[in-house]
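agent> step 3/5: call structure_predict on target 'Short chain dehydrogenase' (Liquorilactobacillus satsumensis DSM 16230 = JCM 12392).
agent> reason: downstream docking stage needs a structural representation; sequence fetched in step 2, passing through unchanged.
tool.input:
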Amino acid sequence: MKTVMITGAASGMGLSATKLFLSKNWNVMMADFNQEAGEKVAAQLAQKYSANQVVFQKTNVASAASVKALKEATTKAFGRVDSLVNNAGIFTKGALHEVAEDAWDRIMAVDVKSIFLTAKYFVPDMIAQKSGTIVNTASISGLTGDYNMAAYNAAKGAVVNLVRAMALDYGKYNIRVNNVAPGPTNTPMFQANPPEVIKQFEAASPLGRLAEPEEIAKVIYFLASEDSNAITGQNIPVSTGFEIYSGQPVQK
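tool.output (status=ok):
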């Protein structure tokens, strides 16, 4: 049985990925900063699957000590890790001059530094076993620019290029690294927007809707599994087409 470690696993896309990996008979180490939600969900999933198949660890992905403890807990619970899903992330609004310094530092730590830390503590074992997959949650906001989202664009843009460097460095160890790049997704966080804002987003999609967390999870699983053995260093948009429009007006 293979093992995956998923950050941001207690809700949204991370929770959908957790459920999908469990349904595919993987062990799952759930990592999340929200201890109450994580423990509750893990207990529910343990009843459906097995307490030996799903474990929760409260984790601050921006802390080296916390990620090191996560690695140790994962090894203790499952012996090895076959896949890392770096899904934890945060968002902040504002033009660059409007972003507070601590908000800038926080988004860079959670969205970018976290990938460095999981690589630092988990990848050496993957190198030793000469196999593994890493899937990072980037964003179409790392592939394009957005109004009033400078810090988020910068953080996700870093993740978009980081995947290429990681794929180059780790390919010789049979470790593949890819990104899923979601667009606006129907998560609890997004649903906190006013209904009129959600409708505007839906109207902006060529498909007329948002992506669902389960749809993102399916691509995460694909990239983590053997079905994608020839794919590495890629950013795969799962966005209902938000990033394909050039912005030019309709020509009559």
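agent> step 4/5: record observation. The longest helix spans residues 101-129.
agent> proceeding.
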